[in-house]
Amino acid sequence: MKKIDTKIYILSTAATCTMIFIIFFISWYLNVMKANEMREKLLDFQLTIEDSQLEMLYIANYMKGDCSVLESGVKTLSERLVENNRKLSGFDSSTMSKSEYDRLKAEHILIFAKLWLLYLKMKNECNSNISTILYFFSINSDECIQQGYVLDSLYNKYSENLFIFPIDADFDLGIIKILKERYNVTQTPTIIVNEKIKFVGLTPKDKIEPVLFNQTS
Fold this sequence. Notes:
about 10% strand, elongated, Glutaredoxin, alpha+beta, 6 helices, about 65% helix
């Protein structure tokens, strides 16, 4: 009887170990596949960034004075950056090195900054009815998450005439430091509308919306 019990014990132990190994292997394999998939998306995103940089360079240098073409080009690029921003937000940073992720994020922020400057140029030179929002936020802040939903709602409504520049206030980048100093940003969320109107703290849609296209404010 003892021999049978011992045999059963050995078989059950072996089966358990085999199952643990299989589960571990499947988990490892899925993580590797996920990492490879994320890296492919990362490479695609980097190509999109490079393409956007060239497009922006062309717009800035060869569309001067042609307001209709400039507006069309800037809006098209803006739509692409908004989509890219959503893709970047969906990246799992744990599947890549921190330096790799931070570099990608920095490049993306710099493109947004350049496009924001193009929007300001377009407003001044073409008298365009465009509103801009600088949105300073902190990651993992509940108020900032809620503020993001409010701004998404505004963008969905006014996408043709509204540009939102999302800025991670805690990210170490020169342009972010300059903008924080210029607008005296000391907490998040903070919103700057058309370089003039400042909202600090979680701000509802009904307070932001009336001043978006009021250029005299």
